[in-house]
């Protein structure tokens, strides 16, 4: 009900919506509407009310609210089915559980904080309460498992484009899964998948974006490489608006991938790369070696040139500049 009332207030925008209209549309009593408006106000929503004219939303707190995210996204699928946790172990774990129970394509799990936020290869993800976007989206692409890595790049491209749009910053992609602002990591992505012999059943795309942390909010050992949007721009951003923008970008790019193939994603990542042209240290299963990142292949693999001048493709692995 809270969600439905918020949605009506958001749709009314700058206009008032009468209590009567809310009652009619939602089939509830005046008293019930009043109770929810009161609860929303207690949670920091500023709602004007005038007899006969009705209610109007003036300002919102920076809570993770499904109605705000859905409204900001304006999407068909991505970020429409939403679960929000105040605290959970890891949104990836919650999303995997939901996916196994049949969550639809685009289902989104968010948390104010995570007690066991995860990076790749068993590493952790620092999840300062209320200061970041910790979210995982369920994707159900109709293709085979070996094509799944493109979805990590697609998500990185969606975050990069959303940050450029909302925060007006340059946000290049460090292949394959980091988004960088002014040389430091503002976002990391962790993809996990379930597939059978033929097809992907689901991919859970975990996205962590640092929004409002100060440098002292990061543990000392990552202060030289981590940053937040607040640190880099000096500005605060509504996390729901940002989550909505990421969902919108994700949907556009996902639809394009399904209809026209990988070209646009790879092209975006090529044009917004923090890796190409750099000397990189590749950390692969076979060991560590230095090379120069020269291009992205047509299907998104990184092309590197080693010290002997030989070129090769890297499918996955880690790159440190
Ligand atoms: C990643 O791993 O970058 C993937 C991070 C994915 C996080 C999201 S949050 C929502 C969802 N739920 C989860 O449990 N995870 C996903 P990797 O490339 O392995 O980078 C991890 C490394 O980044 C750590 O070892 C630290 O050095 C550093 N790090 C940890 N927390 C960070 C933060 N908040 N910002 C920047 N760097 C961080």
UniProtKB/TrEMBL annotation:
GO terms for biological process: protein lipoylation; regulation of DNA-templated transcription. Gene3D superfamilies: 2.30.30.100, Bira Bifunctional Protein, Domain 2, Winged helix-like DNA-binding domain superfamily/Winged helix DNA-binding domain. The keyword ATP-binding applies. It catalyses: biotin + L-lysyl-[protein] + ATP = N(6)-biotinyl-L-lysyl-[protein] + AMP + diphosphate + H(+). Its EC number is 6.3.4.15. It comes from the Bacteria. Belongs to the biotin--protein ligase family. This is Bifunctional ligase/repressor BirA. It comes from Luoshenia tenuis. The gene is birA.
